[in-house]
Design brief:
The protein is an all-alpha fold. It has two domains: 1-39; 55-289, MetI-like (MetI-like fold), CATH 1.10.3720. 76% of the residues lie in helices and 2% in strands. Strands 1-2 form a two-stranded antiparallel ribbon.
Protein backbone atom coordinates (compact mmCIF):
# COMPACT_ATOMS: atom_id res chain seq x y z
CA UNK A 1 0.00 0.00 0.00
CA UNK A 2 2.81 2.38 0.82
CA UNK A 3 4.35 1.83 -2.61
CA UNK A 4 1.02 2.42 -4.33
CA UNK A 5 0.47 5.55 -2.27
CA UNK A 6 3.92 6.90 -3.10
CA UNK A 7 3.37 6.68 -6.87
CA UNK A 8 0.67 9.43 -6.95
CA UNK A 9 2.84 11.55 -4.69
CA UNK A 10 5.76 11.18 -7.08
CA UNK A 11 3.56 12.04 -10.04
CA UNK A 12 2.29 15.16 -8.26
CA UNK A 13 5.88 16.10 -7.40
CA UNK A 14 6.93 15.70 -11.03
CA UNK A 15 3.99 17.83 -12.17
CA UNK A 16 5.05 20.61 -9.80
CA UNK A 17 8.68 20.34 -10.92
CA UNK A 18 7.96 20.55 -14.65
CA UNK A 19 7.20 24.34 -14.81
CA UNK A 20 10.33 25.48 -12.91
CA UNK A 21 12.53 23.01 -14.79
CA UNK A 22 11.04 24.17 -18.09
CA UNK A 23 11.54 27.82 -17.12
CA UNK A 24 15.15 27.14 -16.10
CA UNK A 25 15.85 25.28 -19.34
CA UNK A 26 14.30 27.85 -21.67
CA UNK A 27 15.45 31.06 -19.98
CA UNK A 28 18.71 29.98 -18.31
CA UNK A 29 20.28 26.82 -19.64
CA UNK A 30 19.65 27.36 -23.36
CA UNK A 31 20.75 31.05 -23.37
CA UNK A 32 23.93 30.16 -21.45
CA UNK A 33 24.70 27.37 -23.91
CA UNK A 34 24.12 29.74 -26.83
CA UNK A 35 26.36 32.33 -25.18
CA UNK A 36 29.13 29.78 -24.81
CA UNK A 37 28.60 28.60 -28.40
CA UNK A 38 28.95 32.12 -29.79
CA UNK A 39 32.01 32.84 -27.64
CA UNK A 40 33.90 30.02 -29.35
CA UNK A 41 33.24 31.35 -32.86
CA UNK A 42 34.54 34.30 -34.88
CA UNK A 43 33.30 37.09 -37.14
CA UNK A 44 34.29 37.59 -40.75
CA UNK A 45 32.84 40.51 -42.71
CA UNK A 46 30.12 40.96 -40.06
CA UNK A 47 29.11 37.30 -40.40
CA UNK A 48 29.31 34.81 -37.56
CA UNK A 49 31.53 31.79 -38.20
CA UNK A 50 31.12 28.84 -35.82
CA UNK A 51 34.30 27.45 -34.33
CA UNK A 52 36.01 25.99 -31.30
CA UNK A 53 38.49 28.59 -30.14
CA UNK A 54 39.22 30.34 -26.86
CA UNK A 55 40.79 33.31 -28.66
CA UNK A 56 37.95 35.67 -27.73
CA UNK A 57 38.11 34.71 -24.06
CA UNK A 58 41.86 35.36 -24.09
CA UNK A 59 41.30 38.74 -25.75
CA UNK A 60 39.06 39.80 -22.85
CA UNK A 61 42.09 39.64 -20.53
CA UNK A 62 44.81 40.74 -22.96
CA UNK A 63 43.32 43.24 -25.39
CA UNK A 64 42.28 46.77 -24.54
CA UNK A 65 39.91 48.20 -23.55
CA UNK A 66 38.10 45.09 -22.37
CA UNK A 67 40.01 44.23 -19.20
CA UNK A 68 40.38 47.82 -18.01
CA UNK A 69 36.69 48.56 -18.60
CA UNK A 70 35.72 45.31 -16.88
CA UNK A 71 37.81 46.21 -13.82
CA UNK A 72 36.37 49.72 -13.80
CA UNK A 73 32.83 48.31 -13.97
CA UNK A 74 33.62 45.97 -11.08
CA UNK A 75 35.04 48.89 -9.08
CA UNK A 76 31.93 50.99 -9.69
CA UNK A 77 29.77 47.99 -8.78
CA UNK A 78 31.74 47.46 -5.56
CA UNK A 79 31.44 51.12 -4.52
CA UNK A 80 27.73 50.96 -5.30
CA UNK A 81 27.28 47.83 -3.19
CA UNK A 82 29.20 49.37 -0.28
CA UNK A 83 27.31 52.66 -0.46
CA UNK A 84 23.93 50.95 -0.77
CA UNK A 85 24.68 48.68 2.21
CA UNK A 86 25.81 51.60 4.39
CA UNK A 87 22.65 53.54 3.58
CA UNK A 88 20.35 50.51 3.77
CA UNK A 89 21.40 49.07 7.12
CA UNK A 90 20.17 51.92 9.37
CA UNK A 91 16.85 52.04 7.50
CA UNK A 92 16.38 48.27 7.74
CA UNK A 93 17.44 48.30 11.40
CA UNK A 94 14.97 51.05 12.24
CA UNK A 95 12.24 49.26 10.30
CA UNK A 96 12.87 45.99 12.11
CA UNK A 97 13.48 47.08 15.72
CA UNK A 98 12.45 50.68 16.27
CA UNK A 99 9.17 50.90 14.37
CA UNK A 100 6.53 49.50 16.71
CA UNK A 101 3.46 50.92 15.00
CA UNK A 102 2.19 48.82 12.11
CA UNK A 103 1.08 51.97 10.29
CA UNK A 104 4.51 53.62 10.63
CA UNK A 105 6.21 50.44 9.44
CA UNK A 106 3.87 50.30 6.45
CA UNK A 107 4.63 53.95 5.58
CA UNK A 108 8.41 53.40 5.73
CA UNK A 109 8.08 50.17 3.78
CA UNK A 110 5.99 51.99 1.19
CA UNK A 111 8.55 54.80 0.90
CA UNK A 112 11.20 52.18 0.16
CA UNK A 113 9.13 50.55 -2.57
CA UNK A 114 7.59 53.67 -4.16
CA UNK A 115 10.76 54.60 -6.14
CA UNK A 116 10.39 51.31 -8.01
CA UNK A 117 7.12 52.58 -9.45
CA UNK A 118 9.02 55.21 -11.41
CA UNK A 119 10.75 54.17 -14.61
CA UNK A 120 14.47 53.52 -14.35
CA UNK A 121 15.17 56.00 -17.13
CA UNK A 122 13.25 58.74 -15.31
CA UNK A 123 15.20 58.21 -12.08
CA UNK A 124 18.55 58.25 -13.86
CA UNK A 125 17.63 61.34 -15.86
CA UNK A 126 16.48 63.06 -12.66
CA UNK A 127 20.02 62.83 -11.28
CA UNK A 128 21.33 64.31 -14.51
CA UNK A 129 19.05 67.27 -13.88
CA UNK A 130 20.07 67.54 -10.22
CA UNK A 131 23.82 67.37 -10.89
CA UNK A 132 23.80 69.46 -14.08
CA UNK A 133 25.18 72.98 -14.42
CA UNK A 134 21.63 74.33 -14.16
CA UNK A 135 20.62 71.75 -11.55
CA UNK A 136 19.47 72.07 -7.96
CA UNK A 137 22.92 71.66 -6.40
CA UNK A 138 24.59 74.31 -8.52
CA UNK A 139 21.64 76.67 -8.11
CA UNK A 140 21.78 76.32 -4.32
CA UNK A 141 25.55 76.84 -4.16
CA UNK A 142 25.26 79.91 -6.39
CA UNK A 143 22.47 81.36 -4.26
CA UNK A 144 24.60 80.86 -1.14
CA UNK A 145 27.53 82.53 -2.92
CA UNK A 146 29.73 79.51 -2.20
CA UNK A 147 30.73 79.29 -5.85
CA UNK A 148 30.96 81.89 -8.61
CA UNK A 149 30.21 79.59 -11.54
CA UNK A 150 28.45 76.22 -11.89
CA UNK A 151 30.45 73.14 -10.94
CA UNK A 152 31.13 70.67 -13.73
CA UNK A 153 33.02 68.07 -11.69
CA UNK A 154 29.87 66.54 -10.15
CA UNK A 155 28.51 65.28 -13.47
CA UNK A 156 29.80 63.11 -16.30
CA UNK A 157 32.25 61.10 -14.23
CA UNK A 158 32.39 57.93 -12.13
CA UNK A 159 31.16 59.76 -9.03
CA UNK A 160 27.89 60.73 -10.68
CA UNK A 161 27.41 57.16 -11.95
CA UNK A 162 28.00 55.66 -8.49
CA UNK A 163 25.69 58.20 -6.86
CA UNK A 164 22.92 57.43 -9.35
CA UNK A 165 23.33 53.67 -9.00
CA UNK A 166 23.37 53.84 -5.20
CA UNK A 167 20.10 55.78 -5.25
CA UNK A 168 18.47 53.33 -7.66
CA UNK A 169 19.60 50.05 -6.09
CA UNK A 170 19.57 50.84 -2.34
CA UNK A 171 15.97 49.52 -1.94
CA UNK A 172 17.23 46.04 -2.88
CA UNK A 173 19.69 46.16 0.01
CA UNK A 174 17.09 47.55 2.41
CA UNK A 175 14.60 44.77 1.76
CA UNK A 176 17.29 42.07 1.85
CA UNK A 177 18.72 43.25 5.19
CA UNK A 178 15.27 43.86 6.66
CA UNK A 179 14.13 40.35 5.78
CA UNK A 180 17.14 38.94 7.63
CA UNK A 181 16.73 41.22 10.66
CA UNK A 182 13.09 40.22 10.97
CA UNK A 183 14.21 36.60 11.46
CA UNK A 184 16.23 37.42 14.60
CA UNK A 185 14.21 36.26 17.64
CA UNK A 186 13.52 39.02 20.13
CA UNK A 187 14.23 36.51 22.90
CA UNK A 188 17.92 36.57 21.94
CA UNK A 189 18.04 40.34 22.26
CA UNK A 190 16.21 40.22 25.58
CA UNK A 191 18.61 37.57 26.87
CA UNK A 192 21.57 39.70 25.82
CA UNK A 193 20.16 42.67 27.71
CA UNK A 194 19.41 40.58 30.82
CA UNK A 195 22.98 39.26 30.84
CA UNK A 196 24.33 42.81 31.02
CA UNK A 197 25.42 43.35 27.41
CA UNK A 198 25.48 46.94 26.22
CA UNK A 199 23.60 48.09 23.14
CA UNK A 200 26.86 48.28 21.20
CA UNK A 201 27.84 44.74 22.24
CA UNK A 202 24.43 43.40 21.26
CA UNK A 203 24.71 45.13 17.91
CA UNK A 204 28.24 43.99 17.07
CA UNK A 205 28.13 40.48 18.55
CA UNK A 206 24.56 39.41 17.83
CA UNK A 207 22.62 41.57 15.39
CA UNK A 208 25.32 42.23 12.78
CA UNK A 209 26.57 38.59 12.61
CA UNK A 210 23.01 37.28 12.34
CA UNK A 211 22.11 39.85 9.68
CA UNK A 212 25.27 39.21 7.65
CA UNK A 213 23.54 36.84 5.17
CA UNK A 214 21.00 39.55 4.30
CA UNK A 215 23.70 42.21 3.95
CA UNK A 216 25.79 39.95 1.72
CA UNK A 217 22.77 39.01 -0.39
CA UNK A 218 21.89 42.67 -0.85
CA UNK A 219 25.51 43.47 -1.71
CA UNK A 220 25.61 40.72 -4.34
CA UNK A 221 22.38 41.96 -5.92
CA UNK A 222 23.46 45.61 -6.02
CA UNK A 223 26.95 44.71 -7.24
CA UNK A 224 25.60 42.56 -10.08
CA UNK A 225 23.00 45.14 -11.14
CA UNK A 226 25.44 48.06 -10.93
CA UNK A 227 28.27 46.28 -12.73
CA UNK A 228 25.99 45.37 -15.62
CA UNK A 229 24.22 48.72 -15.85
CA UNK A 230 24.41 50.71 -19.08
CA UNK A 231 21.78 53.44 -18.73
CA UNK A 232 23.38 55.42 -15.89
CA UNK A 233 26.81 55.59 -17.60
CA UNK A 234 25.12 56.75 -20.80
CA UNK A 235 23.14 59.51 -19.06
CA UNK A 236 25.32 60.79 -16.22
CA UNK A 237 28.70 59.28 -17.05
CA UNK A 238 31.33 60.68 -19.36
CA UNK A 239 34.10 59.02 -21.37
CA UNK A 240 35.78 58.05 -18.10
CA UNK A 241 32.65 56.24 -16.89
CA UNK A 242 32.08 53.85 -19.81
CA UNK A 243 31.18 50.45 -18.38
CA UNK A 244 31.38 46.93 -19.73
CA UNK A 245 27.70 46.83 -20.77
CA UNK A 246 28.25 49.87 -22.99
CA UNK A 247 31.14 48.03 -24.65
CA UNK A 248 28.96 44.95 -25.18
CA UNK A 249 26.21 47.09 -26.74
CA UNK A 250 28.73 48.58 -29.18
CA UNK A 251 30.07 45.12 -30.02
CA UNK A 252 26.56 43.85 -30.73
CA UNK A 253 25.06 46.85 -32.51
CA UNK A 254 27.99 48.62 -34.16
CA UNK A 255 30.86 46.19 -34.66
CA UNK A 256 28.64 43.09 -35.02
CA UNK A 257 31.27 41.17 -33.08
CA UNK A 258 28.92 38.77 -31.32
CA UNK A 259 31.63 36.27 -30.33
CA UNK A 260 33.56 38.96 -28.42
CA UNK A 261 30.39 40.19 -26.74
CA UNK A 262 29.52 36.61 -25.77
CA UNK A 263 33.02 36.07 -24.36
CA UNK A 264 32.64 39.15 -22.15
CA UNK A 265 29.32 37.76 -20.96
CA UNK A 266 30.95 34.43 -20.07
CA UNK A 267 33.65 36.23 -18.07
CA UNK A 268 31.07 38.35 -16.22
CA UNK A 269 29.06 35.23 -15.34
CA UNK A 270 32.23 33.55 -14.09
CA UNK A 271 33.05 36.54 -11.91
CA UNK A 272 29.53 36.48 -10.50
CA UNK A 273 29.75 32.78 -9.64
CA UNK A 274 33.14 33.34 -7.98
CA UNK A 275 31.78 36.22 -5.88
CA UNK A 276 28.77 34.21 -4.76
CA UNK A 277 31.07 31.36 -3.74
CA UNK A 278 33.31 33.72 -1.76
CA UNK A 279 30.35 35.36 -0.03
CA UNK A 280 28.92 31.96 0.90
CA UNK A 281 32.27 30.98 2.39
CA UNK A 282 32.44 34.21 4.39
CA UNK A 283 28.86 33.74 5.56
CA UNK A 284 29.51 30.18 6.74
CA UNK A 285 32.68 31.22 8.55
CA UNK A 286 30.85 34.07 10.27
CA UNK A 287 27.97 31.84 11.33
CA UNK A 288 30.41 29.18 12.58
CA UNK A 289 32.16 31.75 14.77
CA UNK A 290 28.85 32.96 16.13
Amino acid sequence: MSGAASNPDRRHLLIWLVPPLLWFTVFMLIPYCMLFYYSLGSTEYMTFKPGVSAANLIRVFRAEPYLSVLLKSARIGAFTAIGATILAYPVAFCLAFHTRSARAKFVIYLLVIVPWWAAYLVKAYAWKTILGTNGIINALLLDLHLIHEPLTLILYNQFSVILTLVYIFTPFSILSIYAQLERIPTSILEASSNLGATTFETLTKIIIPLSLPGALAGAIITFALATGDFIAPALVGGPDAVMISNVVINLLGVAFDWPMAASIGIVVIGVGIALISVFQYVEHRAQARF
